[in-house]
């Protein structure tokens, strides 16, 4: 009986993998994935890219590569989550920020979509940590202040702080993907000059530049964050939230911690953002 169950299990798993690997994507369809980083502006980036006539985007985070259950559905299922609505669309893009830190994801993407173009948006890790903290605090009523939270001796072990040391995760990605298949977006500049970052992404994707400065305005009701001129062009209430003012001591402590990480990032990714 046990033997029979083992055989059935094996056949199920292998048929699933063969289904995953035998999928032939439609010709000329290419795939880009915004793999992270959480709280760096991933939603804004995807929304802005969605107005390009050649791009089709997934409306939700698919968690295909970082969830074993979803991954079992196969590539055909994955692709079906990103419907192509216009004949001009030939690049499909999804964003799932947890891919960046998930251990299994780089290998899974490399095996299934070795040509995928990876987009990584990063921002000043201090602002990123505050943003992550604000999200947590909004979920838990009695949360300590950010300054108290960072004053503890093990603050570097807190996930929202750890994530900002981007290189520890980036190293894993570089084992499976060449640097030229990755593009880094400056999350700080995406807030101030979104058209510049969008131009770089369109060039990286080999697309004609169709998203321009005139497509944006800065909304005072949204703390000055950029929105698209199109209807519903701003992000929802849970994006672009007010951040607490933090003490100089806290900022200095985080600056010291991120100094080495940022220097490594500059070397590893060969990028030079203003905050690095
Ligand atoms: P806050 O809400 O803490 O300000 P993500 O989409 O990856 O979760 O990132 C959320 C962050 O994107 C927001 O964090 C905000 O700072 C930033 N952001 C960048 N451009 C934005 C925009 N146009 N509208 C709102 N938030 C934007």
From TrEMBL:
**Record: active site:** 39 (for sulfotransferase activity)
**GO MF:** [heparan sulfate]-glucosamine 3-sulfotransferase activity
Q: Which InterPro entries match?
A: NST/OST, P-loop_NTPase, Sulfotransferase_dom
Q: Name one Pfam family in it.
A: Sulfotransfer_1
Q: Note the superkingdom of the native organism.
A: Eukaryota
**Which residues does the annotation say bind 3'-phosphoadenylyl sulfate?**
39-43, 123, 131, 239-243
Q: List the disulfide bonds.
A: 227-234
Leader sequence range is 1-18
Protein keywords: Disulfide bond, Glycoprotein, Signal, Transferase
Q: Which stretches make up the Sulfotransferase domain?
A: 31-230
Its name, as the record gives it, is Sulfotransferase domain-containing protein
């Amino acid at each position: 009986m046990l033997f029979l169950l083992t055989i059935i299990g094996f056949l199920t798993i292998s048929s699933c993998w063969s289904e995953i690997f035998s999928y032939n994507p439609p010709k000329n369809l290419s795939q880009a994935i915004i793999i992270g980083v959480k709280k760096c502006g991933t939603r804004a980036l995807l929304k802005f890219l969605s107005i390009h006539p050649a791009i089709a985007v997934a409306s939700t985070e698919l968690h295909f590569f970082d969830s074993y259950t979803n991954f079992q559905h196969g590539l055909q299922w994955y692709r079906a989550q990103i419907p192509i609505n216009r004949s001009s669309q030939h690049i499909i893009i999804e964003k799932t920020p947890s891919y960046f830190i998930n251990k299994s994801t780089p290998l899974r993407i490399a095996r299934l979509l070795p040509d995928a173009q990876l987009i990584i948006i990063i921002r000043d890790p201090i602002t990123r940590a505050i943003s992550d903290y604000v999200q947590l605090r909004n979920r838990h009523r009695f949360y300590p202040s950010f300054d108290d939270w960072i004053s503890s001796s093990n603050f570097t072990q807190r996930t929202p702080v750890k994530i900002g040391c981007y290189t520890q995760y980036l190293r894993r990605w570089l084992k499976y993907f060449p640097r030229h298949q990755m593009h880094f977006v400056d999350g700080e500049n995406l807030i101030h000059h979104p058209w510049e970052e969008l131009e770089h992404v369109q060039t990286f994707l080999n697309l004609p530049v169709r998203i321009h400065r005139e497509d944006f305005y800065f909304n005072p009701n949204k703390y000055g964050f950029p929105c698209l001129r199109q209807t519903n062009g701003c992000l929802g209430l849970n994006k672009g939230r007010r951040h607490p003012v933090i003490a100089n001591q806290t900022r200095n402590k985080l600056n010291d911690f991120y100094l080495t990480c940022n220097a490594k990032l500059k070397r590893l990714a060969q990028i030079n953002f203003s905050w690095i």
